[in-house]
Write a structure and sequence with these properties.
- The structure is a homodimer of 220-residue chains.
- The longest helix of chain A is centred in the middle third of the chain and has 24 residues, at 135-158.
- The first copy, chain A, contains ten helices and no strands.
- With 220 residues, chain A is mainly alpha-helical.
- Chain A has helices at residues 16-30, 37-43, 58-70, 82-99, 103-108, 115-130, 135-158, 166-173, 183-194, 203-219.
- Among the domains of chain A are: 16-55, Homeodomain-like (Arc Repressor Mutant, subunit A), CATH 1.10.10.60; 69-159, Orthogonal Bundle (Tetracycline Repressor, domain 2), CATH 1.10.357.
- At the A-B interface, helix 6, helix 7, helix 9 and helix 10 of A face helix 6, helix 7, helix 9 and helix 10 of B.
- The first copy, chain A, binds a DNA duplex (30 and 30 nucleotides) through loops.
Chain lengths: 220, 220
DNA sequence: CTTGACTCACTTACAGCGTAAGCGTAGTAT
DNA sequence: ATACTACGCTTACGCTGTAAGTGAGTCAAG
């Protein structure tokens, strides 16, 4: 053992992986806007500039934590029932992205070519192609599914109220949605207040529409 | 006229609207990351802090320019053919968002309750409700469509290559996608290189799936 | 055992950010 | 004339990412 001799206890070595893990933790707990080089360094009991011995710049950290999160998503089984696999893939992605609220934004705002992302995409295309989709059809299908999943997740993350409080929120804001100006928003609010509509948005709804359509497309 | 007397030419008065218009222009031409209070002020030949006489803070500017952009989108006609209107609304939104590349990100990352957005949503719900959808169904439909449109637009904006260069790009990157590791990504790249698949993603594809599904849902 | 190379955390510094606080002046209302 | 308001100005603070340079520790070769 070369370390810890003479009581000059070496700190646990900093590595790129430790940096990225700490970055994920920090973003999860404090929000992505709090992920600064200085705060991240201080979490690691180190100065900001020391991080640059392990990553080129902050962008490399962002790329790294995106790929770390993508690796949490369940990858489709090539050769499995395409519909089951696409469904599982989508719900898993949604769950993971809801766990790491900052991640979707990062995914859709940068080019992601980390190993986890490449593997994820490869398996997705593979599953579709093996199920009889042409490469072109698989490409379109994959793009449509992901567009929806990312868009849905972003909208859900962005919505500032919890499902339980929809009804009271609707009641509180109703005066600001005058019936003459916004008749249908007003109407929908009343549906929510009256409990006839829970106002919940559900990944399943749009996902079913897309997968149904893809099923038909595959048949032809 | 009270201004321009004694040759002490007053500068054109700063207003919130002039600030917002300049902000849109700046974001369009230099990118949203270049939209800083200082740069915006200098475009208006004014100091940064002067802007605060017309807007509370930068967030108010961001909210304002989002609503300005939303007002460019074609609003559905209540009482029109729902499918035609939803289609027009979606393609129009996509076009507008592609014109202002920074706007989608802003829309999906903040709560938008500006007048243009409220009117846009109200008309959308109205069009669907008048076409026979229940409020709950209209809510789900609208959410699914927008999730897809926003997600699709973000992915398209994010893609770093122009359609014309897909084939050569695929050829250039092929070595980095080894067949043993990523067989299907490799396969798809070869389809693109060979010209059998243009690699183009098309808003219509997923939109048709969703609208078809909604049609069926409305029938029942 | 010494020496030199290498690793890696450190300090300092800079330009840019949003914005709080306060000042000065032009124009309007009394 | 006086008071008030509107609004652009300057200054300053704490934050950001990171370029540049320093110095202490580890290790292999002579």
């Amino acid at each position: 053992m070369t370390k810890a001799k003479k009581g000059v206890r070496r700190r646990t070595a900093l590595t790129k992986d430790r940096v990225l893990s700490a970055a994920v933790k920090l973003a999860d707990s404090e929000g992505i806007e709090s992920l600064s080089m200085r705060k991240l360094a201080s979490r690691l009991r180190v100065e900001a500039m020391s991080l640059y011995n392990h990553v080129a710049n902050k962008d490399e950290i962002l790329d790294g934590i995106v790929d770390k999160i993508v690796s949490e998503i369940e990858v489709p089984t090539v050769g499995g029932d395409w519909r089951v696999e696409m469904h599982r893939r989508s719900t898993s992605a949604h769950e993971v992205l809801m766990r790491h609220q900052w991640a979707t934004m990062l995914i859709v705002s940068r080019v992601n070519v980390g190993p986890a992302m490449l593997h994820f995409v490869d398996s997705t295309i593979g599953c579709l192609v093996e199920a009889g989709f042409s490469y072109a059809a698989a490409d379109h299908a994959w793009n449509a599914i992901d567009s929806y999943v990312y868009g849905f997740t972003l909208q859900k993350l962005n919505f500032p109220f919890a499902p339980e409080e929809y009804a009271e929120v609707a009641k509180a804001y109703l005066p600001q949605i005058p019936e003459e100006q916004y008749p249908y928003l007003h109407g929908m609010s009343q549906e929510v207040i009256a409990g006839r509509h829970d106002g919940l948005h559900d990944l399943e709804f749009g996902l079913k529409l897309i997968l149904d359509g893809l099923e038909e497309l595959r048949g032809s």
